[in-house]
């Protein structure tokens, strides 16, 4: 296998596949009670039983990688096929990581590392998150994830706009949004809207990052992070956690999956 280092999202990106990728785009959404309590327990336990690599981040996040997906396939595929009729186990693959975090996440997208394409000829076509648990007051608002209408076909990255660079070994910081070919949930070209985010939304949900981080971002959905649900979104869609002080969230855990396909 080639060792592919992180790249800027459009660097050596295979643009010839964008028309095909556009067919999978759709608005982010949440389906409550997607998993039964028993299914949630099985998935939770199996993650910790089978993972073979973990990574720790100083901000307060522990990630679990390289876990056995057999149980997930058995439980998830019949349910996912009801949401995505195109899904076929012989053509699509599940990959992802589990996490426990006490911190807010930066503005980013989890499309795929270049190695997925250059080593395996695969690209991500859909993403979803399975919330596992949330530690918070029952009377506080739900923990949240904020999704933006902007889509960018490209490798996984952190969107910093020069005001929120982070040090990561597997993602690059994107410092200039204006030069990128943004599209919407229909795959149509979209214009950046600098003044889209209101003071109220920023001050309650997004103030853990500098405001300029969101320049040009258009809010699509603010979705609750509720155990047993499934959060559906596009791999090429920037998103960020809602401010954990707003929901009084002390700790939460989940699994983020990508559905990938050979190209």
Short précis:
The protein is of the alpha+beta class and 263 residues long.
Lay out the secondary structure.
Blueprint: H1 18-22, E1 29-31, H2 37-50, E2 53-57, E3 61-65, H3 70-83, E4 92-101, E5 108-109, H4 114-120, E6 122-136, E7 144-148, E8 157-159, E9 172-174, H5 199-206, E10 219-224, E11 230-233, E12 239-241, H6 244-247, E13 249-262
Parallel strand pairs: 8-9
Antiparallel strand pairs: 1-11, 2-3, 3-4, 4-13, 5-8, 6-11, 6-13, 7-10, 7-12
> Helical content, roughly?
10-25%
**Shape estimate:** globular
Secondary-structure content class: alpha+beta
Range of strand content: 25-35%
Features:
alpha+beta, Jelly Rolls, seven-stranded antiparallel beta sheet, three-stranded mixed beta sheet, 20% helix
Descriptive account of the structure:
Strands 1-11-6-13-4-3-2 form a seven-stranded antiparallel beta sheet. Strand 2 (53-57) and strand 3 (61-65) form a beta hairpin. The protein has a single domain, classed as Sandwich (Jelly Rolls). The chain is globular and about 45 Å long. With 263 residues, it is of the alpha+beta class. The model has no long low-confidence stretch (mean pLDDT 89). Helix content is 20%, strand content 30%. It has six helices and 13 strands. The two termini are 18 Å apart.
